[in-house]
Amino acid sequence: MNTDWRADPRVKEMDPEKIAFLEDLGTQIRRTPRSQMLNRFLSMTAEAGRRGISFTDRETDILAGVLMEHMDPKDRGKVEMFRMLSRRMGKQ
């Protein structure tokens, strides 16, 4: 995945700790086999909670938009899946 998303002005307004977490998440996701993707995502979500990191709906929408602009079309569906899961988990 292209990493130019970090230079987007919408992302630069975010807390640096959140940006670092997202970079780590991206690294973890790239290294995770498809069959373990959901488990990896859930464990990273739990890690964010332990570290007190949470994203507002606005931040999530900005990130998804920015990331999708810099992704291959085949990977865009993955982001949409993660957004859906994130929203569901946030309602619990």
* Helix coverage percent: over 70%
Mean of pLDDT: 77
**Share of β-strand residues:** under 5%
- State the end-to-end CA separation: 31 Å
By DSSP, the count of extended strands is: 0
Low-confidence stretches: none
Helices and strands, in N-to-C order? HHHHH
Q: How would you sum up the global shape?
A: globular
Please name the defining characteristics of this protein:
92 residues, mainly alpha, 5 helices, globular
Task: Explain this structure.
The chain has 92 residues and is an all-alpha fold. It has one domain. It has five helices and no strands. The chain has helices spanning 9-12, 16-31, 37-50, 57-69, 73-90. Helix 2 runs antiparallel to helix 3 (37-50) and helix 4 (57-69) runs antiparallel to helix 5 (73-90). The N and C termini lie far apart (31 Å). The mean pLDDT is 77.
